[in-house]
Amino acid sequence: MNFKKLANNSAAITATFALAMMTGCGSDGLPDDAAAVEGVVTYQGSPVADAVVTFRSQAGFSAVGKTAPDGRYQLSSASIPGGTKIGDYQVTVVKREKLENAMLTEDDPNYSGQQQQAAPQKPKYLVPERYSRPTTSGLEATVATGPNEINFDLTDD
Fold first, then answer.
1. Domain-wise residue ranges, the chain
2. In b/e form, how buried is each residue of 99-112, taking b as 16+ CB within 10 angstroms?
3. How is residue 41 annotated by DSSP?
4. From CA 45, how far away is CA 38, in angstroms rounded?
5. What is the pTM of this model?
6. Which of 13, 30, 48, 86 could serve as 41's disulfide partner, Cβ 3.0–4.6 Å?
7. Are strands 37-43 and 152-154 parallel, antiparallel or unpaired?
8. DSSP string covering 67-128, please?
9. H/E segment holding residue 134
10. Over the stretch 91-144, which tens digit does the pLDDT of each residue have?
C-alpha cells in the first residue's frame, strides 16, 4: 500500500472540504441563504412558453426565469446564478407578442431614412396583463431552504 499517495489524497479531500465550508456554499453550490427555484407556468391549463417570471422581495432583491415550451422555468439572479435568496416574494408573469414593425433608428443597418413615422404599437399581452405587475398579479411565493417547486396556474378570473 502506498501510504504517501494515500496521505496526499486525504490532504486534498480535507482542503476541498475546508474550502467549501469557508465559502458558505451548500451541497447544491448555492450560498447558504439561497435556494434553487423551478416550476411550471400554465394559463387555462396549458403550458406558457416564452414568458418571463420575476420574483421580487420587499427588500428589492429580484430573480428572473424564462419559461421553456413546456412552461418550465428556473430562477436565477445576477448574484446567485441558479437560485435566489430565501424569503417571501411577489411574483409577476409577463408574456407579450413580438412587434413586427418596430421603428428602426439611424444606428440600425436596415434604416433607410424613407420609413414613415408609424404610431408606436402597444404590444398585446398573451396572458392577462394583471399578472405583469406586482401590485395586481396576486401571485406570491415563499422560497425555503432546499429545492423549491413553485407552480403558477394563471386564469382570466
1. 34-97+124-154
2. eeeeeeeeeeeeee
3. E
4. 18
5. 0.72
6. 48
7. parallel
8. --TTSEEE-B-SSSTT-EESEEEEEEEE-BPPPSSPPP-TTSTT--S----PPPPPPPBSS-
9. helix 134-137
10. 999 999 987 666 666 766 666 666 655 666 778 999 999 999 999 999 999 999
Question: What is the DSSP code (8-state) at residue 129?
Answer: G
115 — alpha (psi -120 to 50), left (phi > 0) or beta? beta
Q: Any idea which residue has 420575476 for its cell?
A: 54
Q: How far is CA 129 from CA 93, 94, 119, in A?
A: 9, 8, 21
Instruction: Decide: helix, strand or coil at residue 146.
Output: coil
Q: Answer yes or no: are the C-beta atoms of 124 and 132 closer than 8 Å.
A: no
Reading the block at residue 32, the C-alpha cell is 447558504
Q: Which CATH class is domain 34-97+124-154?
A: mainly beta
